[in-house]
Every structure is written in C-alpha cells, then in structure tokens.
Amino acid sequence: MDALNLSSQLVFEGYWYLPEQPDNLVAGILTYYPEDKIVLKLIGSFGHPLEQFFDKKTNDIVIYGRTSDSKDITLLQVFKKANFNWTAGFAIVEYICKYMIIGKHIKGLDEKCNYWANAIIPELSDWCPNNAISFSTGNENTNISFQTNGKEKCLLNKTAINDTTSISLLQEISYSKSQKEINIKQFVSIDISKNSPCSISELLSDILMFEQFLSVATSNIVKSSCIKVFDSNLYQDVDNVKRYKPIYIVQSRRNFKEIKAKEINSIDFLYSYSTIQNYYSQILKEWYNAPKEITPIRTHLIDSLERKRSFSSVDFLIVIQALDGFWSRFREDTYKRNNNLNAKNRVALKDKIGELLFEFSNIEIIQNANICIRACVNSRDYYSHFYAPKSSEIVLVGYELYHLTNKLRILLICCVLSLTGFSNAQINDIFKQSNSNLLKI
User: Fold this and answer.
1) 371 φ, ψ to 5°?
2) pLDDT at residue 258 above 60?
3) Assessment of whether the complete model's pTM goes beyond 0.90
4) In angstroms, rounded to a whole number, what is the distance separating the alpha carbons of residues 7 and 304?
C-alpha cells in the first residue's frame, strides 16, 4: 500500500457493507477531512430506506468497505444521518465516523492479534533531533552530498516499560526522486511492540501515553500525525523478505485544528531528549507505570498547556484543583501520619499548598516565585462559589490571576515530574537549562 498523506483530504470511492450482510453492497464515498471529520455518504442504505429514520443505534455498528483502488477499510464508532429522496425513492445516508482503519477488516478495536505499532509525532523530531543524514558542500565546486547509515530505520533507544511492552525511538529516512527533484526527509518515530497478542485499543492507549509525555516535555499539546499498525500475518514475500503491510489508524479530531494554529518552537520546550538522555529510559518507564490516580492530574496539566486566545478564571481553577488533587492523593496520608492527625481530619487548602511549596523549596524557580498562599485560597473559593469576598480577603483578577496561574502551573509541573521519577535536583537542572515560556514568572 502506498503511503497515505493524512495532512490532505482523502476520498475513497467503493462499495460498503455490514459484516453480517456481505452480499448487501451499497455504493458510497468516504471522505477524510484532515484534523476534522470522517464522513461516509451512501447512495442507498443497508436496510429498508424508511428504517434509516427510526433506527438510531449506530454507535456499535461496524462498516466494511472495499474501495476502487482495492483498499480494505473498516469504519468504527459511527453516527448516522439519513435523508430520503421521495422522488427517486431511495435514501441518502451519511455516517460520521470516529475511526477509519485502512488496510484490514477488523471486528473492533479490542480484537487481539499479533500487532505492533508505529507513530509519527511531528514535534518528536524537534525534541529528539535526527542525525541520520549528513550534509556537506564543497569549497571550490558546488558539490552536495548526503550520507546515511545505510538503513531506512535506525534504533536510537528501546525501553521495556513493563513485562509485555517496549517502546523504541527510531531515526527514519524517507526519500523520493523524479527527473526534476529529489526529496529527502529525516524524522523520529516511535515503535510500540508487545510480546503477546494485543488489541489496537491497547496500542492506541500506549501512544496516547507517549503523546502526553511529549506534551509535558515540549510544553505543548502534541498528537500523532500518522499511526500505523502491523499484523504479523499480513505481509508479502519480496525476494524472501517479509514486507509487512501497514494498517493506518485514522481518528477524527474536530477541535485539534485550533490547538495547532500556532507553530511551536523548540526553544520553548521544557526539556529535550538530550537533557534527559542519561535517564530517559528510567523516566519513561516511571511515566507509564505511575499510579492510575495521577491520570486526571496529568490531564489537567496538559489541558492547561492548550494555546488559547484569552485567559479566564477556569484556567486558574484547572491548575489549583489539580494541585489540590495531587496532594490529597499522594501526600495527605503521609502528612497525617507525621502530624498525628486522624484520618477523617480535613486538611485545608492553605496547608496543602504550603506543604507543596516546602517540598519543592530547593528548586530555584519555586524559591523566586513568591506564591501568595492566601491569594490562592481566596481566589479558589471565590471563583468556585462566587460569593462576595470580604474586604480582608485577597481575590486576584485579570493579569494578577493570570500571573498566579503561571506560577502554580510550574508547581504542578514539579509535582508531576516528581511522581514520574525526577529528583528535585534533576528538576532544578532542567528548569535552569530551559527557555520555555512556561517558566517565565
């Protein structure tokens, strides 16, 4: 199968059918709109035309397709819209699809096979620079030469994150040539491999976890631009070499276009691969094996990285609630034991923030932040409950609240990195080397 360009609109014409009705073929067109939606438009219907207006149970339907260029496609998690052409007597049915699987008919995302996956995340090539191609020019003559290591893929790092799963960093090269031009690209991707049968859903979960890891590292929300899954039973023999056919996993992402409106700059990364190279494997393993309770806190931190046109009190609440949750889940029990407090005793937010500031007080940026605990508590109470504040209370608004939110986000980053396995000394070194706007207080 030729490589798909998922950055441009794709159109597939063909016949479509339900797995349980393989002989009931309906002609239609599937259109993929980059960073937006996936729409299947059928000229006709899988059942009686009038039934399309009453049968709304479509989310669990699986649709198979065979395109005019011989591609097998599976559509999952679909929502149906139907119109009836009363003059012609047939229905025009549209399905809005969450997932488009190109290259194989599958029963569902949870179906297990001998799969492994490869994902391209554009920001990864900036975070972990690829040196697979060297470039040189001659002094006297205009000589341009490119040298590679002789392989299209080169293993940079392989980390076993648990007994069944490994994640590899790969330096890759792709090239094409014509009579007029030669195009050579180098990039870094990740491979996720399992030592036992797994589902596409499991692989997507692992990829999402890496996307979140990279989002924190780059101070930006990042997403894969191309996800390919390979099946050990789906290959061609070429000169006694197995060439595995890629199965493309495409998801609709209707809101991601706005997030990506601004190009990111590597200067703004919180830290790069070279900064943590010596302990990258250890940190990645900790990230994947962190307690499940950190998931909503980590999600709040990543949500706070979203590039927005304006700031609101909700942005402040996301960060302060994440700090509250972190302390309650991972620090409160120890604090109560050390202070002989009853398990039922409630710990005030001012004490939680104070304890976290003390825990990370040997990190220079936290020392210099001068976070006002009273302002944190009063502002949280006001924006959560919208009561009339007393004259003695400090409630921040506008730029002052924005400034406080940025400081608290740095404290939240310390919390997440600490739970991921970074020591305070390592966090301090990372912050010193970073030029990220997130660290500007």
Assistant:
1) -75, 125
2) no
3) no
4) 26
Reported as a pLDDT band with limits 50, 70 and 90, residue 60 is: confident
List C-alpha distances in Å: 130 to 15, 265, 284, 368: 42, 16, 19, 36
Query: Is a pLDDT exceeding 60 seen at residue 255?
Result: no
CA distance 331 to 297: 14
DSSP collapsed to 3 states, 269-336: CCCCHHHHHHHHHHHHHHHHHCCHHHHHHHHHHHHCCCCCCCCCHHHHHHHHHHHHHHHHHHCHHHHH
Is the distance from CB of 119 to CB of 189 less than 8 angstroms? yes
254: left (phi over 0), alpha (psi -120 to 50) or beta: alpha
Lookup: tokens for 192 = 């996720």
pLDDT tens digits for 157-179?
Answer: 999 999 999 999 998 887 777 77
Percent of the chain residues topping a pLDDT of 90: 59
Report CA dihedral (339, 345, 350, 356) to the nearest 10 degrees: 50
The residue length of the chain stands at 441
Q: Biggest alpha carbon distance in the chain?
A: 82
pLDDT band at 185 (very low <50, low <70, confident <90, very high): confident
Strand partners, 243: 236
pLDDT band at 434 (very low <50, low <70, confident <90, very high): very high
Token couple for 395: 């409630």
Helices (H) and strands (E) in the chain, counts: 13, 18
Q: Do 120 and 222 form a contact (C-beta atoms < 8 A)?
A: no
